[in-house]
Specification:
alpha/beta, Rossmann fold, 8 helices, 42% helix, 17% strand, elongated
């Protein structure tokens, strides 16, 4: 089994779930082996970038043969801890939050939303898409009770930092932030911010200027 040969760049780390998803597609189609060129064509990522990404993990392929699909799939499954389920909390059940609850992640991999919080929820709690939803007053109690380390944040911008501060105090390790606020958190927490308006503006810019960004 290949091992990590150096500290993995952040850009590479962000592509690991994509590699895993496309390798699943190849495996489901009965593909036994692939080349970096074939993977490049499917993923629309430069083949040199793929080879460079894979080089961080040692010898994943063989010269003249390419990559064994099942070996790669097994490797990335372990790298992404796909055999271990991760429970996630959602804070904010508005339009976007509701969409997350209806989709939930367990359909496609090992991550699932198990509890949500919204100020419109009654004190006794309610259920949305089979997920229990409680009032934000119970955030600390429920998250600690359920041992949750990761939270999806889809709250109004004005309360985002306040919620982040509360989560930091109870030891939450990561926030997937869908608010436009750049959260201030200690080094012990990791925040990934997805600002949909900025992503849309970037897309419009790329289209108007015919910019190809194959490294995403």
């Amino acid at each position: 089994m290949a091992e990590v040969t150096s500290k993995i760049p952040q850009a590479t780390s962000k592509r690991l779930p994509l590699y895993y998803r496309f390798l699943q597609n190849f495996a489901n189609a009965g593909k036994k082996r692939i080349s970096s060129s074939e993977l490049s064509e499917a993923m629309k990522i430069d083949a040199a970038t793929i080879r460079r990404d894979f080089s961080h993990f040692g010898a994943l392929g063989r010269k003249g043969y390419g990559y064994d699909v099942m070996d790669l799939l097994h490797f990335f499954r372990q790298a992404l801890d796909q055999d271990e389920e991760t429970d996630v909390a959602l804070i904010g059940v508005g339009s976007l939050g509701n969409a997350f609850l209806k989709y939930n992640f367990q359909k496609n991999h090992n991550t699932r939303i198990v509890v949500a919080f919204d100020p419109k929820a009654p004190e006794t709690g309610t259920t949305v898409s089979n997920i229990p939803v409680f009032h934000p007053d119970l955030i600390e109690e429920k998250i600690m009770e359920m041992g949750i380390d990761i939270v999806i944040l889809t709250v109004p911008a004005r309360v985002a930092q306040e919620i982040a501060d509360r989560l930091e105090k109870i030891g939450v390790k990561g926030i997937l932030n869908f608010t436009p606020v750049r959260l201030s958190v200690p080094d012990s927490m990791r925040v990934h911010t997805i600002d949909l308006s900025i992503e849309l503006q970037a897309l419009i810019y790329f289209i108007k200027n015919d910019v190809k960004d194959s490294q995403l």
